[in-house]
Design brief:
234 residues, alpha/beta, Multidrug-efflux Transporter Regulator, Chain: A, Domain 2, Mannitol-specific EII, Chain A, 2 domains, 4-stranded mixed β-sheet, 3-stranded antiparallel β-sheet, 10 helices, 44% helix
């Protein structure tokens, strides 16, 4: 029996929405972190989570949908997981920040309006440390900052914050400036991966970011995100 913190190659293939043979080929080439035990592949959940975070921006729509489906959290509405965690209260338009660090600081403050951010200093440091390892910015002018690991002791509940700055700022990741920021703070890995997958799908929805940038209030942004989520299917 495979330990609970590890996955078989069949489980990983289902999670990634890929054929087992393709996953085995990638693992054999060292492109997916794994190891053979008694001639069978095993994958550690923490290593796979980090690998997914570093690569999911290149996933196809089908692969993102498969990842989201495999990570259904009991704490979220599967039809609108992002707008379950995000509320008008945790959206700021325009976000009052002009530098990368001030964006992170302000987003943690905005998320803290829920009273679920119990240790804001630890949360901020964890998010900044993750950003130092690899930028969470996409070429489309959007970033999804988040800690490297879930924070069950620093959060009362999983929470998100959204900020849209009046002008783009250098945030890394690509040549474009970034003006849309989704902060993702989760207590568990399943919720974390489900939200990342859904955000990846939203970002790829035609005109989603353009319309989101036109929102004039938190309520308008939140309603638009919810409506777009309802149009996605698993």
């Amino acid at each position: 029996m495979t330990p609970p913190n590890r996955m078989t190659i069949e489980e990983l293939a289902r999670q990634l929405g890929r054929d087992v043979r393709i996953v085995e080929k990638l693992a054999s080439k060292g492109k997916i972190p794994g190891r053979k035990v008694n001639s069978r592949w095993e994958f550690q959940s923490a290593e796979i989570r980090e690998w997914i975070e570093n690569n999911y921006s290149n996933y196809s729509e089908g692969e993102l949908a498969a990842l989201e489906k495999s990570q259904q959290s009991e704490h979220l509405d599967e039809s609108c997981p992002v707008s379950t965690l995000l509320t008008p209260e945790t959206i700021e338009i325009p976000l009052q920040a002009r530098t990368k660090r001030s964006v992170m600081e302000r987003l943690v403050e905005v998320a803290g309006r829920t009273w679920h951010v119990w240790s804001p200093e630890i949360v901020l440091k964890a998010t900044l440390d993750r950003e130092d390892l690899m930028s969470t910015a996409f070429d489309e002018g959007v970033a999804i900052p988040h800690p490297r690991s879930p924070l069950p002791n620093e959060l009362g509940e999983s929470v998100m914050a959204l900020g849209i700055t009046s002008r783009g700022i250098p945030f890394g990741g690509g040549r474009e400036l970034t003006d849309v920021f989704f902060l993702v703070l989760c207590r568990d890995a399943r919720t974390h991966l489900q939200i990342l997958a859904r955000l990846g799908r939203l970002i790829r929805t035609p005109d989603f970011l353009a319309h989101l940038r036109e929102a004039e209030s938190p309520e308008e942004a939140w309603e638009f995100i919810g409506q777009t989520e309802q149009s996605l299917s698993l």
